[in-house]
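Quick one: sequence plus zinc ion SMILES, need structure tokens.
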Amino acid sequence: MAHCEAQGPREVRPELAHVLRSHAQDCSPLSNDEARVVKALTACRTAALGGHKQRCDHCGREIPVYNSCRNRHCPKCQSLDQALWVEAQMHDLLPVLYFHEVFTLPPCLIPFFRRDPGIAYALLFEAAAKTVIEVCRSCLGATPGLIAILHTWNQQLGYLPHIHCISTGGGLSLDGTQWIASRPRFFLPVRKLSVVFRGKLLEAFEVALTQDRLRISEAAGRFLLRRAAIQKFVVYSKPPMAGPEQVLRYLGRYTHRIAISNERIVACDNGEVTFRFKNRRHGGRTETRTLGGVEFIRRFLRHVVPRRFVRVRHFGLLANGIKVHRLALARQLLDAPAPPTPSSPQHESWEETYRRLVGKDPLLCPHCHIGHLVVIGDIPRSPSPPRMASPSRSP
Ligand SMILES: [Zn+2]
Ligand SMILES: [Zn+2]
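Reply:
Sure thing.
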């Protein structure tokens, strides 16, 4: 269900939707998934999706409020879904340390991902998760719980598939009779993780090639795998997280992120798009980069994941099917209280949920900031969205 959000009287800033409206028609043939994303994002919060006429109960202004697209690639539509998802994870967290590992690829494997993204991403997930589970079992004799998240971009919209893996520091002993914790500042040796990860991922691609599941010839595929076998696979480890609250903050930051936020787009004019990025080579300094509009969109659309592809997955103790039983056992062994009961009342409206989780009032009048918007009529969907005023360069 689409939901509405009040549009404030703000300055028209360049947004991804503006860039798509200006340049998407010049991007040569789009895949069905890409075309669906362009259609949703350009229609989001315009008359194309219909909405409601609303009036402020304080200043009396009438404001059209258009429906949102709720597409998971839309930078304007993530906050509520993200907050709901993060809230749902609270029940699965244990009072233990959590660790964050990032699994990256050598560039020579990218052709597999470009041709068969759905299969390649699934193999990447499995290889990263199985690596953590196997190395944890061999080093600690325990099975951890993992949440794995697929990201495909770097700060400059480059295509760089990688997996963020958030794992319990330690886990259930193999015989299920005790909780074995890792050392407080060290979970698993990254060198070992990277060697095991390389073996698992290359083997998975080889099996897929043999089974003819990939749209790349067997000879070309084997050539890429031979090149990858002599490359270093980088797995890096971020500082541990001290308990569930910090994990939830992390998850909130990583799970519903998309390739670029509107805040990072500085300008869209003269056929070019300028955006901010953090340059890691310069100590994380914020810099700007300008690309042609078509190139910008081409880069953005590379990060569209196949329809219904699940970008966040659970493994180990958190795997579907065994999760409830394993978590109950882990809690018992950790002498930890039962998980918090869901705080969301059963018949909460989306406005109430939004207020509670996002911390903003979605119905507050954007003009007087005192009154609340009350629906006074419907706005039907209009077949073609009005073109927005061309955005100006923001300060
Ligand atoms: Zn008002
Ligand atoms: Zn949207």
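The radius of gyration is 23 Å. The pocket of zinc ion (ligand 1) is lined by residues 56, 58-59, 61, 365, 367-368, 371 (CB under 6 Å).
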